[in-house]
């Protein structure tokens, strides 16, 4: 019996729930950091495979920019874990210098190395830097509740957009990037963000004011949709359908966390500077 992609999507999502509950309910900050690092390195590998051809059969060792990207990515996550954002500038500067050196060494033989170096630098910012926002949230007051809060908002928006778009979608949202995304799906996703966020706020964080919370739900949801479309544009630019096949029904790890990457920094800004 063939399982539909829709069923695979739900089976995969539900099978990850126990891990998510353990991760949030019983895991300490170090376990949290390790699991974020695992997701980050998996997504970063998929990104490098798409943009740099890091999975080529002739590659017996990691290409230099890919190896440097992994080192820089882990360093960024470690800086987030120990709450030292000042290290970011040094880490990104190191990565940029390494990418520049790679360009100079390779340019005579490969003119495309400049574009590849740009992809490498973008990847370190796109995945580890954005994802490290979760580290700062986790280490702050009520951090465990806030991580659950953010994940529910983002994933609810993804589900709401999927079903609203599937059943009500008529008007294309951004056809040049993602032909299946619709305005109705986008609105449905935002409504799901507000609904799920409101329920979780009432249950977990009742002390927060409603007006800025609703603004956060909408901004986090909008950022998540931008992240989804950005990854679609990225895949289209390198002619790839999915970032990988790790999660049946969802694609790769990057396909699963693309919205979270853009939503997490927005949520962190609201928590630190607006909601307190």
Question: What would you say this structure looks like, in words?
Answer:
This protein is mainly alpha-helical. It has one domain (5-275). The protein is built from 11 helices and 2 strands. Strands 1-2 form a two-stranded antiparallel ribbon. Helix 6 crosses helix 11 (253-275) and helix 9 (183-204) crosses helix 10 (210-237). It is globular and about 60 Å long. The N and C termini lie far apart (52 Å).
Question: What's the layout of helices and strands?
Answer:
Blueprint lengths: L4 H11 L1 H9 L3 H24 L11 H18 L5 H20 L6 H19 L1 H6 L4 H26 L3 E3 L3 E5 H22 L5 H28 L15 H23 L1
Antiparallel strand pairs: 1-2
Helix pairs in contact: 3-4, 3-6, 3-11, 4-5, 4-6, 5-6, 6-11, 8-9, 8-10, 8-11, 9-10, 10-11
Strand order of the largest sheet: 1-2
Query: Which structural class do the helices and strands define?
Result: mainly alpha
Which geometry do the CA atoms define?
A: globular
> How many discrete domains?
1
State mean pLDDT (0 to 100 scale).
Answer: 87
Uncertain runs with pLDDT below 50, 5 residues or more? 56-61
Radius of gyration: 19 Å
| Main sheet: strands, sense, barrel | 2 strands, antiparallel
SS elements, strand count: 2
Number of helices, where a helix is a run of at least 4 consecutive DSSP H or I residues: 11
Distance between the termini: 52 Å
Query: What is the oligomeric state here?
Result: single chain
* Helix and strand sequence: HHHHHHHHEEHHH
């Amino acid at each position: 019996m063939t399982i539909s992609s829709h069923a695979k999507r739900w089976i995969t999502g539900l099978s990850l729930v126990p891990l998510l509950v353990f991760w949030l309910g019983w895991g300490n900050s170090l376990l949290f950091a390790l699991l974020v690092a695992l997701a980050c390195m998996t997504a970063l590998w998929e990104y490098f495979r798409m943009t740099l051809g890091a999975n080529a059969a002739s590659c017996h060792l990691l290409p230099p920019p890919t190896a440097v990207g992994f080192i820089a990515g882990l360093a960024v996550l470690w800086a987030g874990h120990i709450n030292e954002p000042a290290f970011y500038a040094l880490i990104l500067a190191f990565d940029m210098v390494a990418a520049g050196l790679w360009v100079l060494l390779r340019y005579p033989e490969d003119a495309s190395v400049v574009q590849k170096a740009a992809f490498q630098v973008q990847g370190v910012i796109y995945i580890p830097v954005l994802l490290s926002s979760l580290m700062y949230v986790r280490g702050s007051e009520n951090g465990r509740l806030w991580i659950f809060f953010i994940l529910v908002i983002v994933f609810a928006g993804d589900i709401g957009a999927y079903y609203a778009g599937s059943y009500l979608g008529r008007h294309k949202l951004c056809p040049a990037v993602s032909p299946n995304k619709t305005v109705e799906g986008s609105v449905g996703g935002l409504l799901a963000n507000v609904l799920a966020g409101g329920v979780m706020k009432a249950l977990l964080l009742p002390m927060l004011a409603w007006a800025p919370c609703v603004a956060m739900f909408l901004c986090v949801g909008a950022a998540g949709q931008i992240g989804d479309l950005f990854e679609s544009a990225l895949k289209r630019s390198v002619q790839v359908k999915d970032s990988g096949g790790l999660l049946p029904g969802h694609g790769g790890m990057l396909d699963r966390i693309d919205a979270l990457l853009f939503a997490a920094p927005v949520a962190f800004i609201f928590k630190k500077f607006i909601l307190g």
